Amino acid sequence: MIKTELSRRSLIAGAGALGLLARPAIGLAIGPAGDQAPAFVDALIARMTPEEKAGQLTLMASAIGGAAASALNPPNANNVEQQLAAARAGQITGIFNGAGSDWHRRLQQAALQSRLKIPMVFAADVIHGFRTVFPVPLGEAASFEPELAERTARAAAEEASAAGIAWTFAPMVDIARDARWGRSVEGAGEDVLLGRRFAEARVKGFQGRGVDRDDCVLACAKHFAAYGAAEAGLDYSTVDVSERTLREVYFPPFQAAFDAGAGTTMASFNEISGVPATGNRWLLTDVLRGEWGFSGLVVSDYTGDEEMIAHGFAADGRDAARLAFLAGVDMSMQSGLYAKYLPGLVAEGAVPQARFDQAVRRVLTMKARLGLFDRPLGRIVAGRERERVRTPAALELAREAARRSVVMLKNDGGLLPLAKAGRRIALIGPFAEGQHDLIGPWNVYGDDKQAVDLATGIRAAVADPKLVTVAAGSGIDAPLAGGIEAAVAAARAADVLVLAIGESSNMSGEAQSRTAITVPAPQQALAEAVAAVGKPIVVVLKNGRALALEGAVRDAPAILVSWFLGSEGGPALADILFGAYSPSARLPVSFPYESGQEPYHYDHKPTGRPNPPGPPQEYKAHYRTAPNEALFPFGHGLTYGEIAYSGLSVGDGRLGGSGTLSIAATVANKGRRAAEEVVQLYVRDRTASVTRPVRQLKDFRKIALAPGESKTVRFTLRREDLLFIGQDGKPTVEPGWFDLWVGPSAAEGLQGAFELVA
Length: 758
Ligand code: BGC
Fold this sequence. Notes:
Distance between the termini: 26 Å
Strand order of the largest sheet: 11-16-15-14-12-13
Number of helices: 21
Bound molecules: beta-D-glucopyranose
CATH superfamily of the largest domain: Glycoside hydrolase, family 3, N-terminal domain
CATH topology of the largest domain: TIM Barrel
């Protein structure tokens, strides 16, 4: 349990100051795994050989991969017969990213022929959908609607479980403050509160009404921990952050996931301040289990244990297995080191028998909770997989989630929405047409060929599809012979241009770090050329991270951020372009002016030499060539309404004792179109014993406003919302003055203040 003593400077924190950073032991919805194992588990363990035990701790990639098994984690080199034999011999606990129910059935039947008939578990990276693909997690986070993420995770679980999958390696809850890091695309962005809310929602969605049900999957909060803090945004690279930053920034989304019942977590690839997470006993045992009371399962990442040799932390495979296992990794993914070395390590006394049995108990308890002992084929019912995937309801949800994920950065002169009739549209760019780069970088079971592209979406929405011309204009990374000329000709013949440019799927995701987070040069050249034609341009960006926009792209009158929207991206974008839906999403990551500003996050600390508002001053904190702030800040996003904030009230301006502070503001839509506004509450602690960020998101609410409508939005601030990690390393709050803002982004808002009193 986290200790909740307060630092000496803390005058007022009390029993109520639990919550954000300090938590009581975590109540797992799936029940404590390992410590309260079902009675039969220990009897079973007593009958197991050391090799069978090590087998239960060994997870392997499937010999037959999912539809789009990736180059990154290819199907197992073992052939099918070898994997079936391993199942029959009880040598593997399960497989991941397997092909579907037929293959899973064969494997399960083989496992049921093993000496102890322990069922296998089938895991998979079901990150943002299964065969129906929803927006990438970063895009979905832009909706600022955790309940939407809960619905899409639920739908994904329904599809995946029908293929026999019982365990998803999701949600990815890493905070990502450096857009160069390609895996930004898999999480909920740079903000801690947003990260917590989406972590919780996704776990609830995956695990549904109980993980023993055949339409639910067990969640795995990953990658524990601080993987997103890789130096210079280079994937897998060194992480060196303070314990305070771990506890204030990187841990809370994991805590939220565990509080919501996530039964497993995955150790991350990176080291933390010198110790690889996979061999980090402080992280995986002292904090995770000792402080937080987590009693689920810890799995390594893909060969994460073996990689400690390359880290220079383990001498060889045997040493790596020992270090990972003793640190707290219960199950090894893909290296096979546990199967190879654990029986010997236990026999020699290098690993205690009790630790060996504890890990096996956790695995068997997980399988029991999943209902696998009772119904090993429960999720594998003939025909169900086909019936449950890509249903009309799931595809409609994909379209809804997609349109709720699109952020409108600019709309000068009300260029959007476009008229459906009477205008000639030139749709230009490498992402204008074609079933590629639609579903995003990390989807094992989705298929771009089943997704709907932008051109198809637009043609279906306009009155006369013949008025739409398409020109690729450029490749993604390389110019296209004659491309610019054809695009310029199309632009000349059109009334309005829709420019679909940005990143390909494989420019973000695992191992896809970029040093410049810009639109690739050939596409930028295309944008400059068509902009010179002088027609109004709507830029539709495809991106897996925050981008630094330049030149004609940045200066276009209308810009939409569309991420990778999944199965129904084209129709969803058309819904927005032609006004069937008013954009309502917000940036979950700041878009800087330049790549060199990264790592950038809105909730940075002040400096001792802040540059006063206005031009740069000598010897103040500023860049020589770029502003300090973001071009488009966190939380920013426009609607088709005309939103105005007024009438901020901050209760009596005092937050004391165990009380609360009521904050209210009026938000009006003065425009002629309906809109949904994300109202955001930010706070700054002016003075504290540990410096505090210039702003921190404390709450947000998405509200619908009809034309002319206004609503009073109320927030309640509690003392525990103001906790931070004090100088003594413990959660604390301190009395004093706080600024607050209620507004539409991290850079705007009505400003007020309140005093926290003892
Ligand atoms: C990734 C994990 C993923 C695992 C299994 C690793 O490369 O880091 O996020 O769950 O592979 O596919």
